[in-house]
Amino acid sequence: MYRYDQHDHQIIKERIAQYRDQVRRRLADELTEEEFLPLRLQNGLYMQRHAYMLRVAVPYGMLSSTQMRKFAHIARKYDRGYGHFTTRQNIQYNWINLEDTPTILEELASVEMHAIQTSGNCMRNITSDEFAGVAADEIIDPRPYAEILRQWTTFHPEFAYLPRKFKIAINGSKEDRAAIAVHDIGLTVVHNEQGEVGFKVMVGGGMGRTPILGSVIREFLPWQHVMTYLEAILRIYNQHGRRDNKYKARIKILVKAIGADVFAAQVEAEWADIKDGPATLTEAELQRVAAYFTAPAYAVLPAVDAEFEQHKADNKAFANWIKRNVKPHKVAGYASVVLSLKKPGVPPGDATADQIDFVADLADRYSFAELRVTHEQNLVLSDVQQSQLFALWQEAKAHGLATPNVGLLTDMICCPGGDFCSLANAKSIPIALDITDRFNDLDYLHDIGDLELNISGCINACGHHHVGNIGILGVDKDGSEFYQVSIGGAQGNNSAIGKIIGPSFSAGQMPEVMERIIQVYLRDRIDAERFIDTAQRIGIAPFKEYVYATTIKTLEHHGEDAGTVVSY
Ligand code: HEM
Ligand code: SF4
């Protein structure tokens, strides 16, 4: 993986020194909170409901075990013993003291990490497929390009004050696992007919109050031009993006307003001026960066390990875990393992310091000391020998990291909601926990099969509810928390925005609402049809009809009377 050079170390060090002085001045009241706000945000520090929150970037989701251990250390020493992995390959700490932040940033810098540009109207962390470099369906390893883009975007002087935040995702596999359609720019690494490498470029995707899927503005961009072309996109956005209204400031609004064709033509015209300029990528520079991403020392192994196959045949629980949490690898005899952070009683994406340390340890022993953060808020050991999967499974299970639910209903995305976030209209974590409790039967979950449930506590859509097969959005009605449900959203290759099924529900009604939605699916599915395929085939009407047909029971521990009618 990428290692900082002297220049990287130097700029991060200088930035921390500058920030340390800003914090000192704030604590001495030489800076007002208002003056300090943009300074702290530039360093990833937010103020939330109860405390400061620090967001740290994991570039394209790749981590060394050393970096992971540092996360555990920070959680233990400066937070309340846990961290929260987000959908854009960041970790967030929710209980940070301002005084500690410069030292935390120093600790992070010692393992080549930082929180710069994890907030503000700038280019944010570059995200990618969690299986980049190892996926069996990979066309081209996107990591060298992701790293080049990371270097290009960090501290880019022209794009430090964009109309709004800007998110870039890059995918190099057949399957899109980076949600590129809901990013400001989504890049797919492809070959053209001549076998040359380049990018399919999508722009104008995003969620929030106006969810829009990105449009393809160029089918093939030769790799040498990735920075100049992106520069042209950003220039058009920087000039014409709306600065008068925060809610209409994202590039998606501009692209929608003028049309993708017109936008593309403007980009091409702008690009003509800078194409072949100094930011053109050279073979030498690509090779320099690509050298950091050479394959680890894989053993030569048979494609199938007999003992592993035997364990699968003998042990149903192990077989279930393999089926859901273990993914094919491009090297014979290896696999990638998803460690699920979703289980009863734990907010999706949360990991304790002990678990983080333990995962670092697993990475050392089973996966060349490397791991990944997924956009589904899970962790990945990318290079595990098939013959070691059984031993790994037993260890992961003993530490609560082997729930065999990857891609199933309880492997949900969920934002921190009203428990932490000051922008929330409703809590989202208790909804996630109640649904996890309600669907605690693994056989039932496996029978339901692939299903993406996404929950957000407000319209900002951090929990990706728009693109959940089932989406739950927390809304405020006269000071009370309610939940709006949508169906038919999807992320990945066939991205779609879900449709709202009707009036919202109280928190206590949500597990039963989910149950009814699932019943309609099980009733109407044809053969092994996935939930999303059934939903897209039959539309929302049958769900709507059944969910609202009769009174919905509520959970008693929410303090509501059982038998309450559907709330409007
Ligand atoms: C308390 C912590 C958080 C705060 C204050 C926060 C704040 C925000 C805000 C203000 C937006 C809307 C941006 C816009 O209007 O364009 C947003 C969107 C988003 N956030 Fe968060 N967020 C938090 C936690 C999270 C977490 C935990 C995740 C991952 C689960 C996440 C992932 C996202 C994503 C993916 C979007 C949507 C971006 C888009 O529109 O394309 N955030 N967040
Ligand atoms: S969706 Fe809303 S409530 Fe949830 S984290 Fe984002 S801003 Fe906060």
TrEMBL record:
<dbReference type="GO" id="GO:0020037">
    <property type="term" value="F:heme binding"/>
</dbReference>
<feature type="domain" description="Nitrite/Sulfite reductase ferredoxin-like">
    <location>
        <begin position="345"/>
        <end position="398"/>
    </location>
</feature>
<keyword id="KW-0479">Metal-binding</keyword>
<dbReference type="InterPro" id="IPR045854">
    <property type="entry name" value="NO2/SO3_Rdtase_4Fe4S_sf"/>
</dbReference>
<dbReference type="InterPro" id="IPR045169">
    <property type="entry name" value="NO2/SO3_Rdtase_4Fe4S_prot"/>
</dbReference>
<dbReference type="GO" id="GO:0051539">
    <property type="term" value="F:4 iron, 4 sulfur cluster binding"/>
</dbReference>
<dbReference type="GO" id="GO:0046872">
    <property type="term" value="F:metal ion binding"/>
</dbReference>
<dbReference type="InterPro" id="IPR006067">
    <property type="entry name" value="NO2/SO3_Rdtase_4Fe4S_dom"/>
</dbReference>
<dbReference type="InterPro" id="IPR036136">
    <property type="entry name" value="Nit/Sulf_reduc_fer-like_dom_sf"/>
</dbReference>
<keyword id="KW-0411">Iron-sulfur</keyword>
<feature type="domain" description="Nitrite/sulphite reductase 4Fe-4S">
    <location>
        <begin position="414"/>
        <end position="547"/>
    </location>
</feature>
<keyword id="KW-0560">Oxidoreductase</keyword>
<keyword id="KW-0408">Iron</keyword>
<dbReference type="Pfam" id="PF01077">
    <property type="entry name" value="NIR_SIR"/>
</dbReference>
<dbReference type="GO" id="GO:0009337">
    <property type="term" value="C:sulfite reductase complex (NADPH)"/>
</dbReference>
<dbReference type="GO" id="GO:0050311">
    <property type="term" value="F:sulfite reductase (ferredoxin) activity"/>
</dbReference>
<keyword id="KW-0004">4Fe-4S</keyword>
<feature type="domain" description="Nitrite/Sulfite reductase ferredoxin-like">
    <location>
        <begin position="48"/>
        <end position="110"/>
    </location>
</feature>
<dbReference type="Pfam" id="PF03460">
    <property type="entry name" value="NIR_SIR_ferr"/>
</dbReference>
<dbReference type="GO" id="GO:0000103">
    <property type="term" value="P:sulfate assimilation"/>
</dbReference>
<protein>
    <submittedName>
        <fullName>Nitrite/sulfite reductase</fullName>
    </submittedName>
</protein>
<dbReference type="InterPro" id="IPR005117">
    <property type="entry name" value="NiRdtase/SiRdtase_haem-b_fer"/>
</dbReference>
<dbReference type="GO" id="GO:0016002">
    <property type="term" value="F:sulfite reductase activity"/>
</dbReference>
<feature type="domain" description="Nitrite/sulphite reductase 4Fe-4S">
    <location>
        <begin position="119"/>
        <end position="272"/>
    </location>
</feature>
